[in-house]
Amino acid sequence: MRNHRSATLRAVILFALTTIVCVFPAMATRVRRLSLDQVRDQAQSIVVVDVLNQSARVGEGAKMVWTDYQVRVRETLKGTDTGALMTVSFAGGQAGGLDVGLSDVPSLEIGKRYVLFLQSGQLHPTPTVGWGQGL
């Protein structure tokens, strides 16, 4: 009887741990769908850019890889981004022996033109509003 209870308790604990491990990472990557009006309203600046170059680096503490894109601002639609060149950084990439990929974090292509809805504040996994929605 005691072995049966122990086995049942172990099974319940294993099930609970498995559920937690499977559910929480999925919840952490969910991004609430925004309307275009919401993306526009949440953006500190909106710029039309051409991607000139990209490079990857290991971030502070060697816990994250960041891909930096050098872009030329063609037009500013909102905000005060007046510099002709700027760098936008997205989480993920390959550098220093690390290969980090994050779902819903976009990557830009050199030579392509994009409209970026940029958010303000502290460093985010992506500088665009709503992860890839602001691209």
What would you note in describing this structure?
- With 135 residues, this protein is α+β, with helices and mostly antiparallel strands.
- Helix content is 25%, strand content 35%.
- It is built from 2 helices and 6 strands, in the order ααββββββ.
- It has helices at 2-28, 36-42; strands at residues 45-58, 65-78, 85-91, 93-95, 98-100, 113-118.
- The strands form 2 sheets. A 4-stranded antiparallel beta sheet has the order 3-2-1-6. A two-stranded antiparallel ribbon has the order 4-5.
- Mean pLDDT is 80; it is low at 12-27.
Briefly characterize the structure:
Helices cover 25% and strands 35% of the residues. The chain is α+β, with helices and mostly antiparallel strands and 135 residues long. Strand 1 and strand 2 (65-78) form a beta hairpin.
Spell out the blueprint of helices and strands.
Elements: H1 2-28, H2 36-42, E1 45-58, E2 65-78, E3 85-91, E4 93-95, E5 98-100, E6 113-118
Antiparallel strand pairs: 1-2, 1-6, 2-3, 4-5
End-to-end CA span: 61 Å
Bin the strand percentage. 25-35%
Helix share, percent: 25-40%
Given the structure, what is the number of helices? 2
Key words describing this protein structure:
four-stranded antiparallel β-sheet; globular; 135 residues; alpha+beta
